[in-house]
Amino acid sequence: MDSSYTPAQAELKWRASELAKHIMPYEQHCDEHEGLPDEVLAELAGHVLELRLNAINMPAEWGGQGLCVLDQVLVQEELGQLTNALWDVVWRPANALRAADRAQVERYVRPAVRGERRDCYAVTEEGAGSDFTGIRTVAVPDGEGFRISGQKWFVTVGDTADFLIVMAGVGPEREPTLFLVDRDTPGVRVERTPRYMHAFVYKHPIFTLEDVAVGPEAVLGDVGTGAELTREWFVEERLMIAARAAGAAERALSEASEWARTRRQFGRPLIDNQMIQAMLADAAMDIVTMRALTYQVAAECDAGMPRKLVHAKAAMAKTVASEAAGRVVDRAVQIFGGRGYMREYPVERLYRDIRVDRIWEGTSEIQRLIVSNEISKRGIQGLVRPWPLPAP
Ligand SMILES: Cc1cc2nc3c(=O)[nH]c(=O)nc-3n(C[C@H](O)[C@H](O)[C@H](O)COP(=O)(O)OP(=O)(O)OC[C@H]3O[C@@H](n4cnc5c(N)ncnc54)[C@H](O)[C@@H]3O)c2cc1C
Questions:
Q1: pLDDT tens profile 168-211
Q2: What are phi and psi of 6, to 5 degrees?
């Protein structure tokens, strides 16, 4: 087992770290204004392209970087150091778009890879969150295509995106199906844009779709494959959340340890106090643990681990990393004292930013259900040991 970076991985991490350093100075502006001006976003987009970090998850033949999951993790952990979810200016179109047909690739995916179009993923509804089988949005066949009606909540990047990937139920069986819907299609409107705990670089509006007419060419994949495509998206996205959580935690520890070395109280640096030392040590141990697990599961995913097992292991990585990052950032706030509560300090922003990682893309409770379901169906071996298991 070799846990060192290859030269190519080290170079990739260097590029991601350069990009993070370039974006970092905009954090406070983003926090104060809940976003960045268009000209800044355009400048940052140019930098993303220059460093070849656009669409890292999309196939190279479509213009993406075609990175394996482990390499994507290496990029995301660098970008995860950024506050205000500024990692999201480095666009990574939804994995479900890999199911696009030739015409959809030309119309949506290639422009999305180049950063000329932006997608958002609209599954959750007011009455359907953890249990997305409860969605009420319907797509009724009308002879020419479909008429979509419903409402979608929490649509991340919905303010900027120019097309939505909408999950709707088709036919009497309400077969879950994904549709590509241009945002300017008649009947698509933003109902309202709630504010959230974090000051995310983009927003999460609520969309209403009222009798939105789309042709048959709007179906992504096939009718009835929406749940499957969404689950595929979850696996990789949960690993990316774990990676970014590790990055956020590392930034918090780096800020807190520097502060503990330089801040003096009672005539000595904070770091000379054992209670502070314990918090720093616990934070370091949390970070190495979450990072090791995330790398392991990403590598197993690349090695072709069976999908059900990778689904459960990605759930473990997301839960372990998001909960550990929450502890690390909380300690960092404590070490900063009153300044840890001031918005101009990165640890305060990380404290707000990191909380959602235990909620979105499936809550910690739902991840635990996925893990325990795997245990009850196939036992613990695959889960608790690296894959592939040695032959008996
Ligand atoms: C900032 C933000 C951005 C988001 N972006 C998107 C997006 O882009 N697209 C999108 O489609 N969705 C998005 N979401 C929605 C997100 O995925 C859901 O909020 C999440 O899945 C939880 O659903 P819910 O909020 O309806 O909570 P609920 O499902 O109502 O759950 C409430 C609580 O009950 C618990 N619970 C539920 N069922 C069980 C159970 N069986 N056993 C034990 N506990 C249970 C949950 O863990 C949670 O603690 C976003 C959410 C947020 C906050």
A1: 999 999 999 999 999 999 999 999 999 999 999 999 999 999 99
A2: -75, 165
What is the atom index within ligand 1 of the atom nearest the CA of 366?
47
CA-nearest residue, atom 13 of ligand 1: 154
Closest atom, ligand 1, to C-alpha of 132: 21
Task: State pTM to two decimals.
Answer: 0.97
Does ligand 1 have an atom closer than 6 angstroms to the CB of 155?
yes
In sequence order, the β-bridge partners of residue 25 are none
- At 108, is the pLDDT very low, low, confident or very high (cuts 50, 70, 90)? very high
Between the CA of 269 and the centroid of ligand 1 the distance, in Å, is 43
- Sketch out the chain's domains with CATH numbers: 7-114 (1.10.540.10), 119-220 (2.40.110.10), 227-384 (1.20.140.10)
Are 12 and 53 spatial neighbours (Cβ–Cβ below 8 Å)?
no
pLDDT exceeds 90 at position 390:
no
CA distances from 152 to 189, 190, 218, 300, 322 (A): 11, 10, 18, 34, 25
Instruction: Tell whether ligand 1 has an atom less than 6 A from the beta carbon of residue 72.
Output: no
Question: Is 121 touching ligand 1 by the criterion CB < 6 Å?
Answer: yes
Active site residues: 361
Give the model's confidence band at 160: pLDDT under 50 very low, under 70 low, under 90 confident, else very high: very high
Summary mean pLDDT of the chain: 97
Q: Are 202 and 145 in contact (CB under 8 A)?
A: no
CA of 389 to the centre of ligand 1 (A): 34
Nearest CA residue ID for atom 17, ligand 1: 360
